[in-house]
Amino acid sequence: MPGRSPSPSDDRISSFAGTKGPAPQSLTAGSFELIGLDEIKEALGERWASLAARASELAEQGIRRRISDSDLLEVQGDTEFLVCFSKLSPDAATGRAKQIAREIKQELLAELPEFSSSLTVKQYVAEIDLATLAESTGSLADRLVFTLRGMRLEADRAILNYRRLLLKDFQLLFAPVWDPERAMVNLNRCVLDLSLGCTTLSQFQAIADPDQMVDTLADIDCLALTRAIEMLHRHGRGSNVATLLVPVGYQTLARSATRREYLKLLASIPEVYTPFVKLEITNVPARPNVDQLNSMLLAASTVSPSLTLQVNGNASFLPSLDPEPLWALSCNLSVGQLRNANLKTLGPQFWEFAKRNGLRTFAHNANTIGLALAAVESGFSYVSGTAVHLSQDVPRAPSRLQPLTFPKRVTG
Known about the structure:
By secondary structure, the protein is of the alpha/beta class.
């Protein structure tokens, strides 16, 4: 791969710092790093060197296009790039760096799909105290790079600590799902309770990059599935077993790496429990790539044939969706745009698609009597929420339930 200067020029950095005022106290600097190029080196063989060099070239060009003329970019080797921001505050520079990293990754994967399973662009921004730099030995450039890398390592440790706390604090609760037609509960929806770690979650979201966030949410999805199976093993006894509706995030299944790990875990479920586990795909984008969604549903259905797709608000993509892998559609009544008492904001596509393809329908988070009544009157097959039953630590066994005096559904 082509050789590059190992560090920025002292003169350029000194000159740059001088433009910030007569006696600058600090420097807002950031780094971008290409991670994962080596992970598929063996698979690419002789093509790897040229593709990795092209990835480095594209990243450098992409960064240059997205920073201002007054910013300073220096290349550190083939996978690391240093930027000194001339006018942005540390917070503004962090937001800008996240956007740059996201856009560059999209460009790299569009031109170099060979890296789609491994490549990510890591960014970090910090305010560097120039007085601290002056206390160190070596060139100004080396001191700046060394200081930034040390601060980045410390931030990575903080992210890892928040991630561990988040995974430790999260709980899995079970919301009984009511069949109003039969006045029965024979299914429980798994609910992720992050309330104990809500502060940790907000802190983690503030400092984690998108890939770290997706990886962590995928770990939570895997942990939720594992705990659901443990609960079936612990409390399921013959005919007393209730089916569990287990959530899995769209992003977990959309990324090949996390999808592979999740489906591997799903396939490892003991056969005796598989009839009692149904997946619900949540957090589907308002305007998903339908081809990608169809492929994702097909892959998941080979392991779990009874899929539920959560559709909140916009359902215009449903007519283009392959219904074969689906068992049900669901919606979240706590979403702001669905608080209309008659639920008409769901749109006709939701109901038409479900009826045409014989799919069941779920209304989640019916947390008021009005929403629960509206869900029943609208024709939902199943309803869950605090107006029906509180979430609990263990699944409710199959049993009769009449939580309120609901009007009998009129069929015609």
